[in-house]
Each structure stands twice: as C-alpha cells, then as structure tokens.
Amino acid sequence: MRKCQAAISRAPQDSASLWGIIHIVAIREVVQYPAEVLTRPCRKIGAGKLAEMRELIADMMETMQQAGGVGLAAPQVGVSLRVIVAYRIEREEVLSSVTAPAPPRLRAYLNPRITRGEGEELDEEGCLSFGKLVGLIPRYTKIWLRYQDDELKEHSEVLEGLDARIVQHEVDHLNGILISDRTTVPLYEREEEKEESQVAATGSDADTA
Ligand SMILES: [Zn+2]
C-alpha cells in the first residue's frame, strides 16, 4: 500500500550520503477508527530521533495532501509520537509595513501544547480516520500554541479560525481524543459527500483532518 516518489528534501551540502540528498517520500496508509493507536496518548519527542522525525514529517505531509486533508497527526499513520502537520489556511495579520517572509503554508509542530484558548464555535468537522463521517465539534476560535520545530527549537504562535480548529483537532489526536469523543451530535455522513461520489478523491476537503 506504500507508493513512493523521490523528492529533494535537503540541500546536498547537508550530507555526503545519498540518503541525505534524496529522501524517498512515502505515502503512508491512514489508520482508520477504531484502531487502538488512535485512542492511545502519544509519547513526547526527544533529541534522539530527529532525523527519523524529518522523514516522518515529510511522509505525513505527502500523505495528508494525497488524502485531501488539511491536517494529520502521527498516530493516524500508526506512529505514537507527538507530531502533527497542518495547513495554514488564514493569513497572518500584517503588523507592520516591513515585508516579513511569508510562513510556509504547510507546517509541522513537534510536541505542540495549547496553553490558552478563547471564544467558542460549533462547526462541522471531519477526520481522515473516519472516512466520510463528520460531527459538530465545539472549538476555541483563538488559541495560543507552543511547539518545537524539527531542531527542537521552541516557538509560540497564536492561531485563529480554521487554523485554530485544525490544530486543536490534531493535538486531540496526540492525546487519543477523536471527533467521536467531542461531537455534540452522533457522527453523520456529510450531505454533499453522498452525492459527490468519486469526485471527493480529488477535491479539497476544507476541514478533514
Ligand atoms: Zn483527525
């Protein structure tokens, strides 16, 4: 079930070895509910496994994009470690006239912690581990996030709207919490999904994570 494609993941000067230049990005299988790995709290990532982490992150990003999701947590590819990848959907506020480099749209967060939340909004939310099922999930509209990058450097970020929702969904995965635990109504199949049939495979699902 693993499809592979070569991708340049690192500048050649980073390593003399071929594996340092070309990482074979693997599309991994997305684990489906009710697999046990989805309900288990994940372990924190330490300094020992960073090279492995970068490969995992590259695979998770590829897998997420292939599946048409906007976020993915490591347990969804069967790895019980605290790492998530997520799209940044909404633009950051422009705080000054100085042009800052745009943050990458696809982000990886290691050991993410939500330290504060504000506001609440109920919205429909899906999950790549639940097929076409969705629920109505209450989430903070604004969160304060602390996380580490792939060198374990500490960062903090404030996220709002859909960005905040995606990260809350993914951090839940790291704690073994699923949409079936959070939904305010029984999970149901999204109406348009029933009609779309095959088109869904290529379409982008705004809130499937
Ligand atoms: Zn999910």
Please, could you describe this protein's structure?
The chain has helices spanning 18-21, 50-67, 161-174, 179-182, 191-196; strands at residues 3-8, 22-27, 71-73, 83-87, 106-118, 121-126, 133-139, 142-148, 154-160, 188-189. A hairpin with a 6-residue loop joins strand 6 and strand 7. It has five helices and ten strands, in the order E-H-E-H-E-E-E-E-E-E-E-H-H-E-H. With 209 residues, the chain is α+β, with helices and mostly antiparallel strands. It binds zinc ion (ZN). Residues 127-129, 169, 173, 209 line the site of zinc ion.
Query: Strand percentage, roughly?
Result: 25-35%
Give the low-pLDDT segments: 1-20, 93-97, 199-206
What name does the CATH topology carry? Answer: Peptide Deformylase
- CATH class identity: Alpha Beta
Helix/strand order: EHEHEEEEEEEHHEH
Strand order across the largest sheet = 3-4-5-8-9
- Total beta strand runs: 10
Helicity, as a percent range: 10-25%
Helix-strand blueprint:
Layout: E1 3-8, H1 18-21, E2 22-27, H2 50-67, E3 71-73, E4 83-87, E5 106-118, E6 121-126, E7 133-139, E8 142-148, E9 154-160, H3 161-174, H4 179-182, E10 188-189, H5 191-196
Antiparallel strand pairs: 1-2, 3-4, 4-5, 5-8, 6-7, 7-10, 8-9
The structure holds zinc ion (ZN).
Zinc ion binds at residues 127-129, 169, 173, 209.
